[in-house]
Design goal:
heterodimer, A: 377 residues, B: MetI-like fold, 3 domains, 7% strand, globular
């Protein structure tokens, strides 16, 4: 009788996954050679990757010239330009690329300002949880930038004056971008609120400003700031060229920030506005206590994207004659002592921008993830 | 009602705030205008648009319409405008194609292809356009060989530091009859295609499409060509002295600008396309497969039409960005609207207010026109809900 029953007493061993789906071979099969066409595409892609990356690595690393004080370091035996990147050129020009023509003895002021800014950005996250730190950071920066002007420009407290025409390189790029961010943020919020206002005059003014600015290229706005603005000021009043650029960039960015902000304001359910009204808050307190904190969570990633655009757009100030990174590189490659190394210059500056922008976008993704935690169940 | 009640009344306060804002705008505007008038008088510049009829006195290196130093500033404006429109429209066409290819490649099951596309997108989007433009122009195109050592493609295309030379189609005597035959054939083919579509809808039967259409386009033109003589000749560039003669010359400035705009916007469009395709619910693909649709039609008839709804609004802003970015021409010295009008013309006449307002008005008009067009198209494809 016993053999009429089968009682499983131990678990059957788990069968291994099919050989075709595991290990290196399995990975290749599922991701690269899943069909005839897939294999063909893979072969083409490999060829493409090899054709692009091998010469690139060869040029930028293997055959590169890393050290040297003069152009001779990057020439071959016949005195011609050798294959391989000439990083010695960047090394020689490095401090100019960072500080422009800021006097060497005064560069500690730039470093100090950079250190303070970094502290203002990093310290708040050590002191408190996430929710409010952007407000703290923003306030810190808003205080720091006017102080930074005194520190960098000097002429007070015994600091020698350094004209803004001597500012340049990465320092100038970051100052324009940073000031643009600090100024365009509150302006953008006001414009966004103005666009949704019930008062027709304020609404119309905001809409006209936002749409006009978004409809024209930044180059024309900068031209306007550099050529037209002096015409509109009383005779004898002049504004520093750097200031004009910052004003132009800030106004331009504010219009874009306003549109991002409007998206956030529209995403807040109407009940929130009504509830805020119902408990008798004034318009500004409704916004400050109820609407904006919620909207901010939605728009911070978008605003960060706008700021990445702003950072890239600062390169345009070269058009009105400021020597930012691009201006320095253009001047450096036109120097007869280093003629013919434009590629290295542009690649290096490109890499610098890439690191900054890519870093900002990764941070934006992380922030988006962290902010979404509040609503995740 | 006591005065303090008025202060707290919403309506009254609204009017007061608006009155103040309006006054500030008007007074500020008047102040600026008075300043400008005073400054212009001092500098001896007559405001107004009379300068548009004066001879420009400068040459423009690249033009689609006739222009010489004796032409007017007004004419220079149109040269700049056509150049801007040319580079922007070429950029838009190529960037769209590139963006779609890279965006789809980014979503490919093929790991390597997807990584390559991601590397392209990640690099291009994080480097300022201006830097890329200067890279192509100064680091890549300027060091090209002299014309006598030009890079040669099939003895038809020549790339050198003077730009790209390519054959120019030169119409002969019999060109117009053949062209007319081609146009007529195309019209007939379109009419036929529309009719077969209607027939398909009415009867469920599909008529052959490809061969009749080809025949309709090719046959009339071929017959006219056989009765008459050759219609078209090509003027092929030839090396003459230090440069090429004949053919069409595309200057390196134009090449660099077009290349930079295409590659840059292509990266952004690729991301737009990827996001759009990802936004289509996967159930749609599964449903299509369940109905027995093959992969191609699933993509063409199910996924893309739905993805387009998501893609179109951001795509519009990419096109507008490309148009606005074309103003970077001023960096490499390509004579676009900004370089010719807000650059040379402004510098020569000093009419900064007039030239800049016209330039900005042009960009604003084109921007508003494109977004109106895209909004119309968007409404057409938008999901019709209850």
């Amino acid at each position: 009788m016993t053999d009429r029953f089968f009682l499983r007493e131990a678990a059957e061993p788990v069968l291994p996954a099919p050989r075709t789906t595991v290990g290196a071979a399995g990975w290749l099969r599922t991701n690269l050679f899943f069909s005839g066409w897939g294999a063909l595409v893979t072969v083409i892609a490999v060829a493409l990757a090899v054709a692009i990356f091998l010469p690139l690595v060869d040029w930028a690393i293997i055959q590169a010239h890393w050290t040297g004080e003069t152009r001779a370091a990057c020439l071959d035996a016949e005195g011609k330009k050798a294959f391989g990147a000439c990083w010695a050129f960047i090394e020689v020009r490095f401090s100019t690329l960072m500080y422009g023509f800021y006097p060497v003895d005064e560069r500690w002021r730039v470093n100090l300002f950079a250190g303070l800014t970094l502290a203002a950005l990093v310290l708040p996250s050590l002191l408190s949880g996430l929710g409010r730190i952007w407000g703290t950071r923003f306030l810190a920066l808003a205080v720091l930038f006017p102080l930074g002007w005194l520190l960098l420009h000097g002429g007070v407290l015994g600091l020698p004056m350094v004209e803004t025409s001597k500012w340049g390189g990465l320092m100038l790029t970051l100052i324009i971008a940073g000031s643009g961010m600090v100024c365009s943020f509150p302006l953008g919020i006001l414009l966004a609120l103005g666009r949704r206002s019930e008062l027709p005059v304020i609404r119309t003014a905001s809409i006209v400003f936002i749409e006009v600015v978004r409809g024209v290229p930044l180059v024309t706005v900068l031209f306007m700031a550099s050529v037209m603005l002096p015409l509109f000021l009383p005779n004898g009043v002049t504004i520093d060229k750097l200031m004009r650029a910052i004003v132009g960039v800030s106004l331009f960015t504010a219009a874009y920030v306003a549109e991002v902000m409007r998206g956030g304001l529209q995403a807040i359910p109407k009940g929130q506005y009504e509830a805020a009204q119902a408990i008798g808050l004034s318009y500004w307190r409704q916004m400050r206590l109820v609407i904006l904190p919620q909207a901010m969570r939605i728009v911070i990633p978008g605003i960060l994207n706008t700021y990445i655009g702003l950072l890239k757009d600062t390169t345009l100030v070269a058009v009105i004659g400021l020597v930012d990174l691009i201006g320095i590189i253009a001047a450096a490659t036109a120097d007869p002592a280093w003629l013919g190394f434009a590629t290295e210059g542009y690649v290096f500056v490109g890499l610098l921008f890439w690191v900054l922008c890519y870093g900002m976008s990764r941070y934006g993704l992380r922030l988006e993830y962290t902010l979404a935690k509040a609503t995740r169940r | 009602m006591p005065f303090s009640r008025y202060l707290r009344d919403r309506k009254t306060r609204g009017y007061a705030i608006q009155a103040v804002v309006l006054a500030v705008i008007l007074l500020g505007g008047t102040w600026l205008i008075l300043n400008a008038a005073e400054n212009l008088r001092r500098a001896g510049i007559a405001s107004g648009f009379a300068f548009l009829d004066k001879p420009a006195g400068f040459e423009i290196s690249f033009k689609l319409i006739d222009f010489s130093a004796r032409s007017t500033y007004g004419r220079a404006f149109f040269v700049g405008l056509t150049n801007t429109l040319l580079v922007a429209s070429l950029g838009i066409v190529f960037a769209t194609v590139l963006g779609f290819v890279v965006g789809v490649a980014r979503l490919s099951r093929n790991w390597l292809l997807s990584r390559l596309a991601a590397a392209y997108i990640g690099t291009i989007r994080n480097i300022p356009l201006m830097l890329q433009l200067m890279f192509w122009y100064i680091a890549m195109l300027t060091p090209l060989p002299l014309p006598r050592n030009a890079l040669n493609l099939a003895d038809l295309f020549f790339l050198s530091n003077r730009g790209l030379f390519m054959p120019r189609p030169a119409p002969l005597d019999d060109f117009w009859p053949v062209a007319a035959a081609i146009v007529a054939g195309l019209a007939a083919a379109i009419a036929y295609a529309l009719w077969t579509r209607g027939h398909w809808r009415r009867t469920g039967r599909r008529l052959p499409l490809l061969w009749p259409v080809l025949a309709l386009v090719v046959l009339p033109a071929a017959v006219v060509r056989l009765i008459g003589g050759p219609a078209l000749d090509f003027d092929i560039p030839k090396l003459a002295g230090f440069n090429f003669a004949g053919g069409i010359r595309i200057p390196p400035e134009f090449l660099a600008l077009w290349l930079a705009l295409t590659l840059y916007s292509g990266g952004f469009i690729a991301e737009t396309v990827r996001a759009g395709i990802n936004a289509v619910a996967h159930g749609q693909v599964e449903a299509a497969r369940a109905l027995g649709l093959p992969a191609g039609p699933t993509m063409r008839r199910i996924v893309i039409p739905q993805a387009m709804r998501v893609i179109i609004p951001p795509m519009t802003s990419q096109y507008l960005n490309l148009l606005k970015n074309s103003s970077l021409a001023v960096i490499v010295g390509f004579p676009d609207l900004v370089a010719v009008f807000a650059g040379s013309t402004l510098n020569q006449t000093g009419q900064s207010i007039e030239t800049l307002s016209i330039t900005m008005a042009v960009f604003l008009t084109i921007s508003l026109a494109i977004s109106a067009l895209m909004n119309w198209y968007n409404r057409r494809v938008a999901l019709v809900e209850r």
